[in-house]
Amino acid sequence: MTESRTDQLTLVAFMQASNVSVFSGSWRYASSAADYLDLRYYQRIARTLEDGKFDLMFFDDRLAMPSIYGNSPDEAVRRGARPIKLDLTAILGAMAAATDHLGLGATYSTTYYEPFHVARTFATLDHLSRGRAAWNVVTSVNDAEARNFSVDAHTEHDRRYDRADEFIDVVSKLWDSWEDDAIIDDRTTGVFADPDKVHELGHKGEFFSVQGPLTVPRTPQGRPVIIQAGQSGRGRQFAGKWADLIFTGNPSQAIAQEHYADQKATIAAEGRDPNSVRILPMVYVITGETEDIARQKEAIFLNELVHPQASLALLSEVTNYDFSGHSLDDEITDELVDSISGIRGLVQGVKRHLGDQPMTLRVLANHRATLLQGPRFVGTGEQIAEQMADWFNSRSCDGFVIAATHFPGAFEDFTRLVVPVLQHRGLMRTDYTGNTLRENLGLARPANHFADTAAPAADTTPAPLAAALPEAVGA
């Protein structure tokens, strides 16, 4: 495995099309903006991030309200625990119009959407944004989502990844179904495109039957950037096979270092260059003009804004288990963990973070709903830049997904106070250098599956580009 990698941080902003940030109490913070149903709200945030030279912003999504707790959405609605999730298509289009360089990503589920729909959505965004689209691939989390799509129960974990493997394979081929030079646009002869360079898939697999071709030509990036956040063994293997950016949730730097090394080895085992994939842990950043100001903010976020019922509603959502019959002081026993599918990794991660502290339902729930969920960088711009540099230089990450405590202030503070320090240290760009998201990330443009298989590479791809393309990004 080569030791070379970019010497600058990849910075991604984690967004919600919602009344809250990922921190579920953010709507109660005094300076949180309340116009989240207005496109201009998202455009303001996008312009702030572009001013801060972020690589990318991407939106989380769920396809249901948090309604596993008590078999009802009441607590989520009452406590503002992410009851609102807007459709992302219109938002991304508006943000593309408001920016020129910032990457734009969205979460779409492989469990409840279809490959053709997802391929067309992101290919269209990539064209309209001139090459800035990214797809965060998820398999969804719970029965509430299933019931919104005419299904009684959520599919078992490994079967969801079986479907996701076939799904992303089909999407990749749909993105490639037009070769780069398929459009001729000869108005004299009346020939618009070369049909020999527009390909049907004829795909018939276990989960999907897709004829193709896609109704959108090949995009500026070749294929949009792929983000994935699998934490389980199967999830890490899936990310190693497909992802360009891997979004992780590690509660401490020591765990992040272990995850980093393990995931890079998994990428190599999939036949890909580990340095072509960025591993980015989610972190909260709370900054102030002085450390005391930052610590005062931290105390408010940790202690005052999240209601316990909101914590339980969100824990039930992510584990697909109804905790309404438990007390907050109930201990998380091995028997309880064994009875809840998908909770073991969460519990193990939190236990390692807590050390000898007893694991109760209150503690576990708080890690899902408050700033305890991930690492916190707290302090002045200099102090936060120093913490980020330490993580980056110690091979704990290739950059960060910045989770906002509140919108838009958290990103405004970061851009104003932290970014100039990172730039001065040479850890961040001072301006965008590429035209597309892939170029700004330093990622190669993928080879076209059909161009590769239809003829020798030398006949279809310029030699300098062919030498730079990774083999395993595609089908």
Automatic annotation (TrEMBL):
Keyword Oxidoreductase in annotation: yes
UniProt EC number: 1.14.-.-
Family named by the database record: Belongs to the NtaA/SnaA/DszA monooxygenase family.
Gene3D superfamilies (alphabetical): Luciferase-like domain (3.20.20.30)
GO terms of molecular function: monooxygenase activity
Name of protein: NtaA/DmoA family FMN-dependent monooxygenase
Key words, A-Z: Flavoprotein, FMN, Monooxygenase, Oxidoreductase
Enzyme class of the recorded protein, top EC level: oxidoreductase
Species in which this protein is naturally found: Gordonia pseudamarae
Cited Pfam families: Bac_luciferase
Phylogenetic placement of the source organism: Bacteria, Bacillati, Actinomycetota, Actinomycetes, Mycobacteriales
UniProt xrefs under CDD domains: Nitrilotriacetate_monoxgenase (cd01095)
Signal peptide (UniProt feature, chain positions): none
Domain Luciferase-like per the UniProt entry, residue ranges: 32-392
PANTHER family per UniProt: ALKANESULFONATE MONOOXYGENASE-RELATED, C2H2 FINGER DOMAIN TRANSCRIPTION FACTOR (EUROFUNG)-RELATED
